[in-house]
Specification:
Elements (H helix, E strand, L loop, with lengths): L8 H22 L6 E3 L2 H15 L11 H20 L6 H21 L21 H21 L3 H21 L2 H19 L2 H4 L4 H24 L2 H10 L9 H18 L10 H4 L25 H32 L6 H23 L7 H21 L4 E3 L2 H38 L3 H14 L5 H13 L3 H14 L4 H13 L3 H14 L4 H13 L3 H14 L4 H13 L11
Antiparallel strand pairs: 1-2
Helix pairs in contact: 1-3, 1-16, 2-3, 2-13, 3-15, 3-16, 4-5, 4-6, 5-6, 5-7, 5-14, 7-14, 11-13, 13-14, 13-15, 14-15, 16-17, 17-18, 18-19, 18-20, 19-20, 20-21, 21-22, 22-23, 22-24, 23-24
């Protein structure tokens, strides 16, 4: 069964939290008797402020339950950061090796999926080739973020066979990224490689006279590899696909994904202006965006069948959800990290080994931030973990070498372990409920698509029993099933529950109005249709149904006005055209009967 949406995200979040927690708790028991001094710096304070502001943003949230999984994950990442820096946990270069192998496996699976190899068809995905992810873009982003780690694995491998293995993984990963057609990943890899080459050209080793021959050989080999790669992708027809994806950004004939992003960003800026100080609450972007989908530019994708879940820009989504102060704390964490990178790179105390690790870690961080500008990796399971690990390594290296002041004797592991147990308890309690809620919802949706209404209703009831306040779509579908069964009172009950969780859901607003109309309760039907049309004034069907209500209430002038608007919006809409004719027929075409209405 293919489950729609981000089906693999929450299981991955829970798995990462639980597995890494075992490691951290082991670290606590291993070193609980060792007295250590710890050094604080600005990043520590900024991370705490960021986490607190993420939490307090829930006060302004329409549905705070939407924030729970992301908030738990951010708090876990914060605890992971403090465990790494305060216990001076050394992750590199071993993390380079393990990450490269995982990237290689994902890339190989993705390539096989692209060519529709049967024996891996059991791996669920919504957009192929997605590897072990649900979506090819998410997989490509993950691979792009870890490309610098593969370079690190090549550099720190002491065995020639291992070097050849990681070089092969690098080539396979590049090929997979090209196959996905994900331009944000292409851009991230291109920029980070350009930075790496510029840094290499400015190194002392490159400028030494006795290394010219080696450098020339390096560039000749590089040109040969690039040429062979170019000929290969041209031969298999991939080159045209790549060029088409790039050209889409500059075409005006149709709305491309690049142009859609500009529309989404523009509308989100309006949302931010209205909620600049406090934000709308973590995880609540998709609930508030319907009110702004046409604020600056009309979102052509926004409809009953599709409503934007993420703005495809983590920075804009972050500032819209947690406000300017939370966003400022996040930006200061990033800027402070790069400042520390600069200080470490110019320090004579730090050994070349650490500086080389720092290069690959910094490039990975740059790739992640570039992708954040075009997508939403920070809402996923793995990228926030990678972000924190990279920042933690930078911070740890800085405080061990450059900044080694203000040492304190604290039982920090005791405090961190208490927080970890609290977060882990919340994770154990909530994530299984969320995962099962989504599972039963997906099964119910599949039964509904196959017109098996009783089975669909059974699975959807199981879904909301898992986590009542999580998925508003569950109640919308239960309402729709009862509406199809002409049980309008029960349908309205379910629709009202859904609207409490998501008051701007246009599908539910429209369907509850129809249910009230079927019950001849035209006042409530009119109320919900007007709410619907406040969000969707361009809906011809909404205006036609509002015209019907006015028609039944004998308000013929208002009915005529709504039918005319519906006809103007969609001349092919039969219900508006036919009912307008009927109206004119009743009113004897000159509206003599209707003048007093």
């Amino acid at each position: 069964m293919k489950i729609p949406g981000e089906f693999e995200n929450f299981p991955k979040m829970s798995f990462l939290q639980w597995s890494l927690s075992v490691v951290l708790i082991y670290q606590f028991f291993k070193e609980r008797h060792i007295k250590k001094t710890i050094t604080f710096n600005y990043i520590d304070i900024l991370i705490l402020i960021f986490l607190i502001l993420c939490s307090t943003s829930l006060y302004n949230a329409i549905n705070p339950y939407q924030a729970i999984p992301v908030l738990i994950h951010w708090w876990f990442c914060g605890i992971l950061y403090f465990f790494i820096v305060f216990n001076e946990i050394t992750l590199f270069p071993n993390l380079f090796f393990f990450s490269s192998i995982s990237v290689g496996l994902i890339a190989i699976i993705g390539i096989l999926q692209n060519y529709q190899v049967d024996f891996i068809s059991f791996i669920p995905q919504t957009v192929s080739p997605a590897g072990t992810f649900g979506n090819k873009n998410m997989a490509a982003h993950f691979v792009a973020i870890l490309i610098p780690y593969i370079f690190g694995a090549i550099s720190f491998s002491k065995n020639k066979i291992h070097k050849y293995l990681f070089c092969s993984i690098l080539i396979i990963s590049f090929f997979y990224i090209l196959l996905t057609g994900t331009r944000a990943s292409w851009l991230a890899v291109l920029i980070s490689l350009t930075i790496a080459v510029i840094l290499y050209l400015n190194t002392h080793e490159f400028r030494k006279n006795n290394n010219y021959l080696a450098n020339i050989q390096f560039f000749i080999i590089l040109i040969i590899i690039i040429s062979c790669f170019y000929l290969f992708i041209k031969e298999i027809g991939l080159l045209n696909n790549i060029l088409n994806r790039i050209l889409e950004c500059f075409q005006n004939e149709k709305v491309s994904s690049a142009q859609l992003r500009l529309i989404w960003w523009s509308n989100t800026i309006s949302l931010i202006k209205d909620n600049i100080w406090t934000g709308i609450g973590l995880g609540n972007f998709k609930i508030v965006y319907p009110l702004y989908h046409a604020s600056n530019c009309i979102d052509p994708m926004f409809s009953n069948s599709y409503q934007l879940q993420h703005v495809h820009n983590d920075f804009l989504e972050l500032i819209s959800e947690i406000g300017i102060w939370g966003f400022l704390s996040f930006i200061l964490i990033i800027l402070n990290s790069f400042y520390q990178v600069y200080k470490i790179a110019n320090s004579r105390v730090v050994n070349p080994y650490s500086k080389q690790i720092l290069l690959y870690v910094s490039l990975s961080l740059i790739n992640l931030l570039i992708i954040c500008f075009f997508s939403f990796p920070l809402k996923r399971a793995l990228p926030p973990i990678l972000l924190i690990i990279n920042i933690a390594y930078i911070s740890l290296t800085f405080r061990k070498s450059v900044y080694n002041k203000n040492k304190y004797n604290l039982k920090h592991n005791n405090i961190l372990t208490i927080f970890l147990i609290l977060i882990l308890s919340a994770s154990f309690f909530l994530y299984p409920k969320i995962i099962l809620n989504d599972k039963y919802y997906a099964e119910g949706l599949n039964f509904l698509r196959n017109r098996q209404l009783n089975k669909a209703e059974e699975q959807l009831k199981k879904s909301y029993q898992m986590f009542y306040n999580w998925n508003y779509n569950v109640f919308s579908l239960l309402g729709y099933i009862n509406e199809m069964n002409k049980n309008y009172s029960k349908a309205i009950t379910y629709y009202k529950i859904s609207l409490k969780l998501h008051p701007n859901n246009i599908n539910t607003l429209f369907r509850i109005a129809i249910s009230y109309s079927k019950q001849q309760d035209f006042n409530y039907a009119k109320l919900y249709l007007k709410k619907f049309l406040t969000i969707m004034p361009q809906s011809a069907e909404g205006h036609a149904n509002l015209g019907n209500i006015y028609f039944y209430q004998h308000n013929y002038k208002a009915a005529e006005s709504e039918y005319k608007i519906a006809n103007a919006l969609n001349p092919n809409l039969a219900i508006a055209r036919n009912n307008l004719r009927l109206l004119y027929s009743i009113c004897r075409k000159n509206l003599e009967i209707c003048t007093s209405r």
